[in-house]
Amino acid sequence: MSQTIQSVRGMNDILPGEAEFWEIFEETIRSWLKSYGYKPIRLPIVEPTPLFKRAIGEVTDIVEKEMYSFTDSLNGETLTLRPEGTAGCVRALIQHKLAAQQPQRLYYMGQMFRHERPQKGRYRQFNQVGVESFGYAGPDIDAEQILMGARLWDDLGLDGINLQINSLGQPNERANHRVELIAHFERYADVLDEEAKRRLHTNPLRILDSKNPYMQEVIAAAPILVDHLGSESLAHFEGVQQVLRDAGLPYVLNPRLVRGLDYYNLTVFEWITDRLGAQGTVCAGGRYDALVEQLGGKPTPACGFAMGVERLLALMREAGGEPALEGIDVYLVHQGEAASRMAPRVAEGLRDHGIDVLFHCGGGSFKSQMKKADASGAAFAVIIGDDEAQAGEVTLKPLRSQGDQPNEQKRVGVDAVADEIMNSFIDWEEA
Ligand code: ATP
Ligand code: MG
Where residue 186 falls among pLDDT bands split at 50, 70, 90? Predict the structure, then answer.
């Protein structure tokens, strides 16, 4: 016997029964984004490796240890499975000159890949919804993107997702802070882990993002970046907060929020829940005004965020907020030669009316077909035997009892069956 092959560790199948929830989630996402004027963009899953190195930064978790990179053996190109979506989105923006004429509000959703230790809420293949704006420099768009999050949690029936914000200022403002930060961490060098020591002189800000519990005290005592911000950066930050206050949206100022990627400046934010254990960040983002130019485009202010779909679905499941799955409308039972020739036409005729039909395949007795019809969760069985076929009729049998309504089957002309079913649905809704 040959050995079975399993899926790659940390890369999960989403099976029927669960995949429907993903589709409902995705529909909610699409209409939510449409209501803010965001347009879809579909991007490749594989990009040239240098794109991510340049965009995300060499001294980051992602580039140092999480990327799935490989050489295409057919042509020697160095490629990477995308660990996040912003880099590819910016690449496409530049390549197709999308921001040349007008600002853009774009979104995408799909798989991302990071070689991390798999655990609850952390996978090697996971899904993000990414939202990016290009060409807007003011704090209004940052604030709108934050308000968008609040509306989505509401649309998804989620509460207890809390907002943290910070400002990373501009690179020149970070320079002074960097000096202080290095001095601070050097004083506590014995507490730093290997990674922090390595990053001390290359990317000390990143140390603030460490999850190492032994370092939290030293991190909490570190000098604060906001103290180094100039008046323009402070005004931008205040502009964001003004909108949030006007909207009545509570937020927490977290001066140690830095985000795991290098490209951010000014506003950064995270939406965090304490209901998912250690993996509590469900959405994160901020401004990245230098990235487009850094990747070879014209200077273009930009702001965006990404949500972890698995974590949001886990949260919805935990809140008991998963929407009810709709069953199929009709199970079509047929037996006998004339009946089985008529059955596909009846099924297509019902579908013409928007009625969902599960067509019995594989033959078998009436009894066994009826068993399958009962188990299918369909609202009706449409039954065609030789008798019905000859008369140009079908037998319509309700399979779910609706309150005190009689649950009786009846014979209906082929042309009338769709109307009969639609009317029953209306009656049931009114009952
Ligand atoms: P974390 O601090 O949890 O590692 P991150 O800063 O690396 O997150 P981002 O790059 O900001 O994450 O990605 C945005 C969101 O995508 C996260 O807030 C999270 O919800 C989700 N996410 C990131 N990595 C994973 C993963 N390996 N598995 C599942 N979801 C993830
Ligand atoms: Mg991470």
Answer: very high
* Candidate of 153, 279, 307, 310 to mutate for ligand 1, largest count of ligand atoms within 8 Å of Cβ: 279
Give this prediction's pTM.
0.91
Q: Calculate the average pLDDT of the chain.
A: 94
129 with 41: CB under 8 angstroms? no
Specify the residue with its C-alpha closest to ligand 1, atom 25: 122
The pLDDT assigned to 32 comes to 98
The string of pLDDT tens digits covering residues 47-58 is 999 999 999 998
Q: How far, in Å, from the CA of 217 to the mean position of ligand 2?
A: 21
Can you give the chain as a three-state secondary structure string? Answer: CCCCCCCCCCCCCCCCCCHHHHHHHHHHHHHHHHCCCCEECCCCCEEEHHHHHHHHCCCCHHHHHHCEEEECCCCCCEEEECCCCHHHHHHHHHHCCCCCCCCEEEEEEEEEECCCCCECCECCEEEEEEEEEECCCCHHHHHHHHHHHHHHHHHCCCCCCEEEEEECCCHHHHHHHHHHHHHHHHHCHHHCCHHHHHHCCCCHHHHHHCCCHHHHHHHHCCCCHHHHCCHHHHHHHHHHHHHHHHCCCCCEECCCCCCCCCCCEEEEEEEECCCCCCCCEEEEEEECCCHHHHCCCCCCCEEEEEEEHHHHHHHHHHCCCCCCCCCCCEEEEECCHHHHHHHHHHHHHHHHCCCCEEECCCCCCHHHHHHHHHHCCCCEEEEECHHHHHHCEEEEEECCCCCCCCCCCEEEEHHHHHHHHHHHHHHHHHC
298: CA distance to ligand 2 center in Å?
A: 29
What is the tens place of the pLDDT at every residue in 356-375?
Answer: 999 999 999 999 999 999 99
Q: Measured in angstroms, how far is the CA atom of residue 240 from the centroid of ligand 1?
A: 24
